[in-house]
Amino acid sequence: MKSFRPLILSFICTLATSLPVKAAEKIYFTYGPIDWSLRVSSLETFAKDGTINKDLGFYMGSIDSEQQAKFRELLVKRIDISPVMVSRFFNSAMGEDLLNRFGKGITIEGGINGKYALRAALVQAALDPEGLTVLNVLRKFPTNMQLQIDLIIGLVQEIDKVVNATEIYTDVMGKLSTEEAATDPPANFAQLPDIRKPGKLGFQKETFTLTDKSRDRTFYVILYKPKQWREGKTPVVVLSHGLASSPESFEDIAQHLASYGFVVAMPQHPGSDTKQAKALLEGYSREVFDLQEFINRPKDISYVIDELERRNQAEFGGRLDLENVGVGGHSFGGYTVLAVAGAVIDFDYLQKLCDRLYGGLNTSLLLQCQALKLPRQVYNFRDPRVKAVVAANPVNSGIFGEKGLSEIKIPVILISGNYDPATPAVFEQVRSFVWLNTPNKYLVLAEGQAHVDFSKIDGGITKTIDSIPNLTLPEPSLLKSYLNPTVLSFFEVYIANNPQYRPYLGSSYDVYLSENEHFKVYKISTTSEPGLIKAASEFRAKYGALAP
Fold first, then answer.
1. Which is nearest to 335 in space by CA: 393, 272, 417?
2. What is the pLDDT of residues 77-121, one digit of tens each?
3. 3-state SS string for 338-384
4. Closest to 76 in 3D by CA, of 127, 121, 125, 133
5. DSSP 450-464
6. What are the C-alpha distances in Å from 404 to residues 115, 367, 368, 379, 389?
7. 279 contact partners, CB below 8 Å, separation of at least 6
8. What dotted CATH number matches 165-543?
9. Which ranges in the chain are annotated with CATH 3.40.50.1820?
């Protein structure tokens, strides 16, 4: 930690010379021509002993005692997060984009975007012994704060709309999945092999390093292969990890696939992996990810397939089927594999989304909008050897849009979660499913899935998640029991051409998996697309279109 201290002191000195030293005394509420104000000291007194003075009483008169207690708790509730992490993130391009969006509603006097003042307050509050709390951020705000109430009301309304849309999406997926299951060919899954369990072929692991001289790019690859070869050609899958993640995050599913006879390669994506995240935190990089990752990631996938072709005869006896490769990816890896499948960046559509007032509600746009800094040209990453794609919680709808996604012609399965704050299903997977033109497409919803497995994240984040009231997450083992057979059956059918696994792709199998479970999994295919479109149309008629 000592190595961080000079960085922190340097950052504080920069703030001290570039921002007003006078702390906020008042919060102004601006709504059209009307201005109200509230002293920060009034909130401090209320937080300390519950006293509601005349200044605060103007706003609290219609709030009952229970709501007052919750508000008081909210003011002083501490978020345990590294101040270095806060300062580094909010000085990155993605962090500044987020601040710029919030700064439109949280301004300094005169209606000027408050992004710099807000950044200073967040960092200084995180550094303070009292920690990052709402009240401490208000204390540290370097000048009087002006809240644009019309924008904030609009934001609250849009958030409510997203919450309603997510609840409706979950209900609709349940109904459509049940209806589709009723039309599936009869199958007694209790009598069929349980593909949630590991296969009988075993697995072994190796790691090697590749250097693509044409890109001056070196990265490692984890390879899982079966201990015993399956009959015929060996199917190959390449898996792409998410932002600030690593190939190791896919080891569970890779081991599962390898035990059924697959060879699974998992490349590192330097510039958007855990090492890049560490470099940001330690001050060696200013960015969450390297902009060139939009280009390098899909090229990494193709380069790995090239390498397997070079090794096929000598190391695998020519067994590998490299003309029918499956690719899978999570989050930013979802973008990666959809690009390799043929999706094309639509800069014009992305620009429109990024310019929208409440576009930040789709948090994945913070990442996608960075692509606007790329040269505006056609990027074609389609690899014809790739024949099927699994995209879990993919970052994709804004950067590709309907036009870009319609270029995909191979089977695709999109996996979503209704607790996912990073790539919200109603913005990302639902839209993408409808926009895909390929006849073999599937949409999966795992209830309670929240983008990542929090059991594998550092204790600080886990502690924050645990502090959220009334939030219960499913056991990781349950989600794994949904994911592993879904991915296995999809790749068995579409790259191994194994019809014995087709019953597992039906909605009836998900009904079977979810039986007696609180958190269920639903799957629909092209058959249910009209029902999903109808539900979306009814939602827009009642609530209006979602902002982003």
1. 393
2. 888 888 888 888 888 888 888 888 888 888 888 889 988 988 988
3. HHHHCCCCCHHHHHHHHHCCCHHHCCCHHHHHHHHHCCCCCCCCCCC
4. 133
5. -SS-GGGS-HHHHHH
6. 33, 17, 14, 11, 16
7. 285
8. 3.40.50.1820
9. 165-543
